Amino acid sequence: MPHHLESLAPRRTVMRHVAALALLAAGLAAGAGTALAQPAWPSRPVTIVVAYPAGGGVDFVARKLAERLGAEMGQQIVVENRAGASGSLGAGLVARAKADGYMLLLASPAEVIVGPSAGQKVPYDPKSAFEPVALVGETPLGIAAHASVEAKDLPALLRLARGSDKLAYGTPGAGSSMHFAGETFNKLAGASMLHVPYKGAAPAVNDLLGGQVPLAIVGLPPLMAHAKAGRIRLLAVTTAQRSTALPDVPAVAELPGFAGYRFSNWMGLYAPAGTTAPVVERLAGLVSKIVAEPAVRSALVGAGVEPRGLGRAEFEQFLRAERERYESIARERSIRFSDTP
Predict the structure, then answer these.
(1) Which residue stretches of 121-260 are H helix?
(2) Are residues 291 and 214 in contact, defined by beta-carbon separation less than 8 angstroms?
(3) What's the CA gap between 239 and 262, in Å, rounded?
(4) How much is the pLDDT for 34?
(5) pLDDT surpasses 50 at 184
(6) Is pLDDT above 90 for 12?
(7) Does an H or E element contain 298, and which?
(8) Is residue 289 within 8 Å of 297, Cβ to Cβ?
(9) Phi and psi based region of residue 257 (left: phi greater than 0; alpha: psi -120 to 50; beta: remaining)
(10) How far apart, in whole angstroms, are the C-alpha atoms of residue 49 and residue 108?
(11) Which of 95, 135, 269, 323 pairs as cysteine with 124 (C-beta 3.0–4.6 A)?
């Protein structure tokens, strides 16, 4: 190689290394710029889907939660009611949503555990379609009687149920949590009360008020005003302890032989499966914080909702236990879901 070319070779090598380093630095800077350009969550409104009409218990909790979450996150939280198909329409919408934290689901047990445990066909896998975030609260179910029913208290109801093969109880539907509550009562009481399914809580309560059905098991809120007015007799709640809103009404679990009896309409917040852990953890922390606030707790209790605020890990454990329990009862008592009365 000519002498003048030999002298240029080291210089060219150095220049190539400098160029490579420059390209690497540019790539790193571009990557950092892209990361910095990604907006922090949430940078736009977040939607909480409720799979039932406005005005119900789940809707009330969703709106109370949305109000406080919006204030905490500095972003609008919109509640969207997508009722239909016994809750699976709204739940399916969230199951198919992008897992970016901008569409959430506030669900009752029906959409994720109870209906599917009883054989309901849903357009999603209830075990894997959602990321559990937090358990917000739970509403006791109430066992109520028409004024003509001889039983004036819970022990009297137990005696009546054991001594009659004509006693009937209405619920919002076959395969509902209320149906599970009634059949478990039958099992533990050694009774055979007849289940009368309705298409929702309202018609069941209407027939109870009219005396067409002697007993009804429905969520507590639709019963409270009628019970206080003396139109029906509220005999018991179905949670493990008495309701904070109605401390004088006994829990079924207080009966001898009924320890562990517990059924409720609980409200859980979910994100689509695959939502990142930081988003889920932030939401879970905020929900726990909000539910612990005295004003929020007072509002929930006033509506017949027992505040819970369980975080992600506790909620996941709770869901596993609930799923196993409902699936076991469905098999043992041959409970099958039906969307028709």
Answers:
(1) 154-163, 177-189, 201-210, 221-228
(2) no
(3) 5
(4) 42
(5) yes
(6) no
(7) helix 294-302
(8) no
(9) left
(10) 12
(11) 95
Domains of the chain (ranges, CATH numbers): 46-138+265-333 (3.40.190.150), 140-254 (3.40.190.10)
Query: The tokens 């539910």 sit on which residue?
Result: 291
- From residue 196, alpha-carbon distances to 200, 217, 277 in Å are 12, 10, 44
Strand partners, 134: 269
Mean pLDDT on 119-140: 96
262-275 pLDDT, tens digit each: 999 999 999 999 99
Quote the tokens at residue 234. Answer: 């509220």
What's the N-to-C CA distance of the chain in angstroms? Answer: 97
Per the structure block, which two tokens stand in for 307?
Answer: 């505040």
* pTM (predicted TM-score): 0.84
Distance CA 230, CA 98 (A): 49
Is 279 a residue whose pLDDT tops 90? yes
Q: How far apart are CA 118 and CA 200, in angstroms?
A: 17
Q: How far apart are CA 294 and CA 291, in angstroms?
A: 8
pLDDT of residue 16: 56
Residue 277 has pLDDT above 50, yes or no: yes
Cα torsion 242, 243, 247, 253 to 10°: value is -20
Token pair for 246: 């109605």
Cα gap 219→141, rounded to integer Å: 4
Asked if 113 contacts 316 with a C-beta cutoff of 8 angstroms, the reply is no
22 three-state secondary structure: helix
Q: For residue 159, give both structure tokens.
A: 């005696």
Query: 63 burial class (0-12, 13-18, 19+ CB within 10 angstroms)?
Result: middle
**Token digits of residue 16:** 């190539």
Torsions phi, psi for 200 (to 5 deg): 115, 165
Separation in Å, CA 133 to CA 26, 72, 239, 275, 285:
39, 17, 22, 10, 9
Beta bridge mates, 272? 130
221 Cα distance to chain centroid: 16
State residue 13's pLDDT score. Answer: 54
